[in-house]
C-alpha cells in the first residue's frame, strides 16, 4: 500500500472517527426527542431524498473526483474538469429542485405520503440545491488529493447540524408540535449543507480561478466519456442506495411509523461497522484510478487482498461486540422505548459484515472505470433484496425487513468477488477467510461469557453505569487479536509494517518493536503453536462455563416460600398428603416468665408428650394443619404473640388445638382431644404465628397425653367440604381437598389427631 493512499485513508478515517463520536453523542438525543414515530417520519423523508439525489448528484460527484485525479497532457486539465462538472451540477440541481416543488404543489406528495409531508418536501426542494454543491465541493477537494480539507468539512457539517437542528426540535417538541419538530431537523440539514458548500468553494478557488467555472471546454475534451461514466455511475449508485432505502420505504408503506423508527435505530447501530470500509471506499476510487492508468495490476491485487483481510477482521470484531452488547447498548443509547430494535439489529449484523468487506472491492473496480460488472453484481443483490422485502415485510414487519436486507448485504460480498475477477484483480489472493472465520468462532464464546459475568450496573452519583459496555470492548479486542495472531489471520511483522508510516509516536514505536521482534530467537511457528494451545483452552473454558452455569442464557428464580421440612409420615395405606408451607418460628414462654431461645418447628412436626403418674402434661403438641378457603379460625398479624397467664390452681376443660394455614389450597380442620379433664400447667400460653406465606396458626398447650401406635391408626378421608358437629369428645373435621383424620384410644384417654399433610 502506497504511503499516499495510506495517508489519505488515515485522513478520512480520522475524520470519520470524529464524526462518529459526534454522532454517538448527539444521535440518541435527536432520536429521544423525536420518539419512534417522529424518527419514522424523518427517516422516510430522508430515504426519499437520498434516492432522489442519486439522479441529481451521483454522476457529478463520482466523475469530478475520478477525472481530476487522472494525469492528462491537456493544458489546464483540472480547471476544465472543475468547470464542466460545476455547470452540470448547477443544471441538475435546478431541475431536481423544480421537480420536487412541482410534485408537492400538484398534490402528488399528499396523495402518496399524506398532507403532513407537503411541508417536508418543500424543504427538500431547497435542500436539493445546497446538498448538490456540498457534495460537489467535497468531492472536488478529494480529487485534488486534499482529504485533509475535504474530510474536516464533514465535522463542520455534523456540528452545524447539531447546533441548528437540536434546539429547533426541542422547542417544537416541547410545544407538542411533533410534525414541526421533524421540519426543524430538516432545517438543520439545510443549514449544515450550506455551510460546507461555502467553505468548500473558498478552498477550491485557491486551486482554480472563479472564471474556470464558466469557461467553455476546449476541443478534444472527453465530454462523452465523462457523461457515459456519469450515466453508469448513476445506475450503480441507484442500485447501491436501494439496498439502504428500499426496505425503509416498503416498511413505511406496509407497516407504521413506529416500526420504521425501531428499524432505523437498528440500522443506525449496524452501520457503525462501515466507518472504516467507507473511508477505504472513499479513498480507493481516485487513488486506484492512478494505479489502473499505470497498469499496476499486481499492486492492485495485493492492495485488494490485504484490504479485504483487514476489513474482514476489523468488522468481525465490531459485529461480535455489537451482538454481545445489543441488550445493553440499545436501551442505554436510544432509551428503553427502543428495545424492540434489538432483534432487527442482531438480524442485520451478518449482512452488514459482508457489505463492509464488499465496499473496498467495489471502490477498486470503480477506479478502473469498467462499471459493467459492478453494476451486474450490485443489481443482482438489489433485486434479491427487493423481492425478499416484498415477501417478508407483509408477514413479519421490521423483522422481515431485517432478514431481507441482511441477505442482500451479504450477497454483495459474494457477487463482487465475481465482479473483481472479471475486472482483473483477485481480492482473495491473501484474504485468509478460513482463518478469519475460525478466529471469529473461537473468540465468540469467551467474549459472550465475559459479557454475562460483567453484566452488572453499579450506581455512581445516582447514575447506573453498565460495566460490560465499558470493559467488554477492550477485553473482546484483546481476545480477538490473540486468536487472530494464534491462527495466522494476522502476522505481527505485517502489522508493524503497516504502523511504521504512521505519525509519531506510533511510527517510531512500531519501528522499535519490529526490530526487537526480528532479533528474537524464538521462531514465529513456536509462538503460534503456543498461542493456538492457549486459545483452544480459552475457547473450551468459555463453552464449558456456558453449559455448566445454570443462569447463563436465562434467569431461573426459585419459587417463593420454599422450605426444607422433615420427611413425611407414612400411613399404612401408603398415602402421602403434601402442602407447601414456610417453616414457622415461634417463641416459647414458660409460666414464670422465663424466656427460652427461639425455636423453629415445622408446622407438621409432632412431638410426643411425656407422662407422669400424678398428672398428664403435654409439653409439645401434635401439629395439625388447618387450611380453609374463605373462613379462618384465627387471624393475626405476623409475629404477634398473645400470652394468657392463669393461676396454677385453675382446672380447665380439655384444651382445644386449632391451627389455621392459608396456602394456595383451602382446607379447614379442627382437632379436639377426648373429654378427659386434666389439670393444666401453671399457665396457659397461646402462640400465634403467621409465616410469610400468609399462614395463621393458634396453638394452646394440650393437657392430654397422646400416644398413637401405628397399628391402631384408623384413617378417614373426606372429599369436598364436610362439616360435623359433635360433643366435646367427638372430632370435627372440615376439608376442601383431601384431609385425613385419625382417632386413637389409648388407656382411658381418647385423642383425635390429624396427620401431617405437608409434603417434605
From TrEMBL:
Organism: Haladaptatus litoreus
Alphabetical list of CDD domains matching this protein: MATE_Wzx_like
Recorded superkingdom: Archaea
Keyword Transmembrane: yes
Region named Disordered: 556-760
Intracellular or extracellular location(s): Cell membrane
Comp. bias regions, Polar residues: 561-574
Record protein name field: Membrane protein involved in the export of O-antigen and teichoic acid
Keywords (A to Z) from UniProt: Cell membrane, Membrane, Transmembrane, Transmembrane helix
Topology within the bilayer: Multi-pass membrane protein
